[in-house]
Amino acid sequence: MNKLLQILFFLVFCAGTANATKIKGHVYDKQTGEAIVGATVVLDNPRRVTNTGLDGTFEFKWVSTGSAKISVSYITYKTITKTITVEKEDNDHLKFYMESDSKSLDDVTIQTNAVASTDQGARRLEKNSTQIMNIVSGKAIEISPDLTVANITQRVSGVSIERNSNGDGQYAILRGMDKRYNYTLVNGVKIPSPDNKYRYVPLDLFPADLLDRLEVYKTLTPNLEGDAIGGAINMVMKNAPGKFQVNANVSTGYSQLFIDRKFASYDASAIQYKSPYELNGKNYNATQNDFTKGTLDYKYKSPAPNLIGSLSVSQRFLDNKLGVVLAGSYQNTYRGSNSTFYNNAVAGTDAYAVITSKSYREFSEQQQRTGLHGKVDYSFNKKHQLSLYNVYVNLKNQQLRDAVSTTYNGVYNPTAGNAELVYDTRSRLTEQQIYNSTLHGGHKFFDDKFKVQWSAVYSSAKNDVPENTSISLNGIEQNFQRTRTSLVNTNPVTRRWERNTDEDIAGYLDLNYHFTLGENKLDIMAGGLYRDKQRSSFFNNYNLAPSAADAKKLYGVDFQSYTDLNLVVSNPTGAVANSLTYDASEKIAAGYGMFKYSSAKLELIGGARVEHTNQGYNLLFPAGETYPKGNQVYTDVLPSLTAKYFLSDKAQLHASYYKALNRPGFYEIVPGKVVNEEFQERGNPNLQRALADNFDLRYELFPGASEQLLIGTFYKRIKNPIEYTFQADAVRGQDIYYTPGNFGTANNYGAEVDYIKYFSKIGVKANYTYTHSRIVTPKTTRTINPTTGDIQALSVDQERPLYGQSEHIANLSVLFKDTKKGWDAQLAAAYTGSRINTVSQFLNNDLWQKGFVQMDASVEKRFKGGISVFVKGNNILNTPAKLFIKGTNPENNKINEDLVKDGNTLIRSDYYGQNYLVGFRYKFN
After folding, report:
1. Is 854:899 a contact under the CB 8 Å cutoff?
2. Could you report the per-residue pLDDT of 57-84, keeping only the tens digit for each?
3. Locate the TonB-dependent receptor plug domain: which residues (predicted)?
4. Could you please report the per-residue DSSP string of 160-211?
5. Residues 590 and 661 sit within 8 Å (Cβ to Cβ)
6. Left, alpha or beta for 17 (phi > 0: left; psi -120 to 50: alpha)?
7. What is the DSSP letter of 555?
8. How far is Cα 295 from Cα 425, in angstroms, rounded to an integer?
9. What digits encode the pLDDT tens for the residues 695-704?
10. What average pLDDT score do residues 513-542 get?
């Protein structure tokens, strides 16, 4: 009987299988025709559920033939329900077109973050944008391994990043143009920089989870500010959706570097943010008791785990007229690096430097990053809207650098006998912050043909480095055994205060009148801005030295801690009377006129922008400078023309020409000098702005949802490019300064490819950029005078790439997405080719950074109730940053440390370790 039942069951199963088939289909946005990723597809009788993949497809297997009902739903879209007839074959062509269910207030459409920050939305914005741009969506940011805006930018084609001392990204380099050639926007408004020297913004200030999307502009139109030869970076902050939404995450992690060694720290709680000069007056004589001992109280221990969290809450009220969003982020991380640095010098007539000493440095840094964003928008009616948004970011970096330098009778030769040691320890607290408040209005008149937009902006930026403390001690190494160190005779301890603030008040106005010309459209636009920027800079320095007797005291014998030192202030009134204490200002008035002509096959945008600049400085304590006061006044006309030719609904050609400028930074034109760790630096009051003609051509194909193929080429011709080089003082030739200058005309051109493709659950993002640039700058070489036999210096011109430009940049990311099971995973690799890191004064002695690959990864698993768990890993290959000189001195071959390879000499190597993070995320709606 059992065998008979088994046979009957088998026959029934075979009969059911014979009448079973599969269903495959696509889900599209009805308006754009783009595929929708992650839509929920439900098949009834029996009920089965799946989700569309990365290419908008879905599939049900083993479906019985006959009548079936399918429903498709997705947030912000109307649910579709269809009854279909399932046949034995040919069920793979089903198509569902979904209509938007966005809530509208007349013609004011309120879109949710779920749509505006998706990859589909990003591709749509790229396709429709006037300027050539690339966009990283909020969703891509969320699932990426990156925690800051700086690291996000490296995923964009043509963009590489410059890293800080702990290996974290800090500045963006666009298309081989150094960070000085781009500017940063928040919601389309330029923000000031807290940097103490330059005007570019350190992007590591901004937590990534405050963003709705990141836009990288590679070309300009007349309504955009004209000082972006490389491009511009626009951070679009989170917006208020159509319904209540909560997004929160918290995570923790650790750096592999501090599993392998201890974290060095000091007590920063008692640091004085003002120097004794500021606290007690200019005639006050400072003593050792005026300085905190905490900056010399070093501790070595394992750090606490990293802590990272963010929260955003948003809602619309009053029948969607009022929108409110509040978002905050906090990151407390411990990072660092292990660095080996070989000091070098050019001697005699040899063209290549010889290694003079070796320094080993350990950096330990605690970073506390805070970001706050709030926005309120109100729609009075379909013609008048107002919005007020505020953003505040703050980064505190508490750093301790331990270093020991080794020299053998003036050169580095470990086989030469006893070594001279110098121990340098620096404790530094740096606090940078930016605040921006923008009131924006939009109005429509004359049946919506005339539009007026305006913005009133207040921004401020601050950089504060209080009581930066350095201590230097001497020692001797005998038979590889280090003896106890002693204080040097002159000024072993320095205390430095550096502070600068920027305040911007600006107003923007944009006017637009729309004409209908049959089936074509014409928009005439005009507007402008006025900005008043005020900057103040403060610098003060105190030197502390021991008495002649105390200079011979040994560490560990005569004193057990640096806090026990008994020192005398060498300059008790401080050194505030220097050229780095100054006030500066910049007033910019700009106006533009432009048109936009649109037809079925062509879009033209052209016009010109006029910018008038009045930039000046005033040294508060002039000390014999030739130019204690100075200013630069100039006016620039910046034309541009952009054309888009539509080859089809999904393909287009995008061409652009625009002229742009690059203004000197405030510090760069102030004729003061500052002593850095390895060299002296000085401004140049005769420094001119750079001007550039920029040409772009790009083929753009958007074949499906979130997919694209972009193939472009660019050319830039830069007049008076600004580069830093080592130059001898015109009066005192023995003084060498690292100073900015203008160097003729530079050319920069290249090509880039950007490809995104999805195959159901697998996605590939790849881009590659080739860049070639050339600039000619003066270099020093040495030769023997045939008459006197003395060594003399000669100046020669050398052709080289622009500073910071990599010939090859590439990104490759492999993504996995299973919407049904809630998995998102990404493996991302970024390659940066070799580039000049430091320009030397000597011929063939520039420092180059070796090309490298950084690998990062992230995985996220979503559960019911809006909960998800994620893991992120950064620098998982522990890729070092290495600097080298092309060529070598024969003396360096004697050093048995593998410094010379393939004809190049290693100068520096930095290892940062891997960083791991695990956390959970909660989403409501």
Report:
1. no
2. 888 888 888 888 899 988 778 889 888 8
3. 127-232
4. EEEE-TTS-EEEEEETTB-GGGEEEEETTEE-----SS-SS--GGGSBGGGE
5. no
6. alpha
7. B
8. 10
9. 999 999 999 8
10. 95
